[in-house]
Amino acid sequence: MTAGFEMWDYVVFIAYAILILGVGLWVSRDKEGHQKNAEDYFLASKSLPWWAIGTSLIAANISAEQFIGMSGSGFALGIAIASYEWMAALTLIIVGKYFLPIFIEKGLYTIPEFVEKRFSTNLKTILAVFWLALYIFVNLASVLYLGGLAIETIMGVDMMYAIVGLALFAAAYSLYGGLSAVAWTDVIQVVFLVLGGLVTTYLALNTVSGGEGVLVGFSKVWEAAPEKFHMILEETNDNYINLPGIWVLVGGLWVANLYYWGFNQYIIQRTLAAKSLKESQKGILLAAFLKLIIPLIVVIPGIAAYVMVNDPSIMANLGEVGMLNMPSTEQADKAYPWLLQFLPTGLKGVAFAALAAAVVSSLASMLNSTSTIFTMDIYKQYINKKADDKTTVNVGRISAAIALIIAVIVAPLLGGIDQAFQFIQEYTGIVSPGILAVFILGLFWKKTTNNAAIWGAVLSIPIALALKFIPIPVFEPWMHQMGITAILTMIIIVIMSNVQNKGADDPKGIKITKDLFKTSPLFNIGSIAVCILLTVLYCLFW
Question: What whole-number distance in Å separates Cα of residue 456 and Cα of residue 443?
């Protein structure tokens, strides 16, 4: 057992890198006699099948945030963090049934484009600028930082070199090929992601059981740390402030999930690239089922690592390697990289490829969506309205490259944060409630006016900041702050809309019909199955 990489680990990882780059560049090639246009670059020619959409959704979502951040949260607070994954499965069903039909009917490239069609160019620009800042300074930077942390922990490579390497890897195919390269390589990335995650889970549980197998290991983990297997935390729990009990199910987490899965460009973009609405909904259904198993490969290893470091006999068996980069309550995010040290030669390369796949696929998705928003909503709106397809695609590539360079510079500045997954959720939660309020009312309440939506979006930020920094004990959990901010923003929008239009429908209000939300028998049956499985899981771990 060694802490570093050996020859076969490098062979496996290099083979993975060549495969991803090869496939990405192959699907990115220009077809004979056809110049790549905006639809090709930003929406993969609207040709994605359901299985590519479903796997790409998961690859874009599962990143270092989950592998490292969520494993760290599993180490620190237990299975309760899995609510993000399991509630996301239900959220995906809602998005597929009620949001996608409207988005696809309007033929959107970007989420800000919907804002322009429903409200105004001014509001679209406000939200486009916000998303660009969020993607670059929070999402891209945090994914690079966590990926760099993993490489530094596992391989001993300086974090700055690791960050630059990850950035160049993602840029190598995504900047040239656009969404098509991102989506098709994601299919491969998910295979590595799940396989590598399962290998690490197996190793952790088998180590806890002393080589007696996964089931015995899981049983011993449950017996050794029963407090880590409660989905609903009591108020006396130190982590209640991050996951406030029953309010996780009925409160602010819905704001985070609906915003992320319904109105987040780098997630929703692959559903807009579907062959048809039904194909997109089938992809959503596949992603929902995959979300149910994600905690097995990102949360359980963190809990197992907690049991391992607190069991002297296990630590004695691990020897000197076990003492290297050992996680602790203060440094919980070291849990997953620490576990990878114990994988045998070859499998360590597979698991590391899975982690790299998670990081690189998310980076590629974020880069593509950042360039899409800048190009379609800023450049073509204000700088060059008559830009041809060649210019548009080139601007997309250049803007993605600039965003990546900024994120590389910012990423090392995030050093020192712990439970990074919670950090990202908390600070995204300052702005997501206002955007969710604007979209929900814009989609489903025809009286919503443009001025009311603008004021709601702008005022939601000071409301969120006031709730965060003014000490009010009952509002201390940040999930409460998200829920309350969303409700207050909706109230502001409703009052201002009624005052402005005196109760009349807004001219740009969306006409909703029952036929718009009709779904296939397959989607309906699959949705019921997801709900039943969720009920069983929550009953088991309540």
Answer: 15
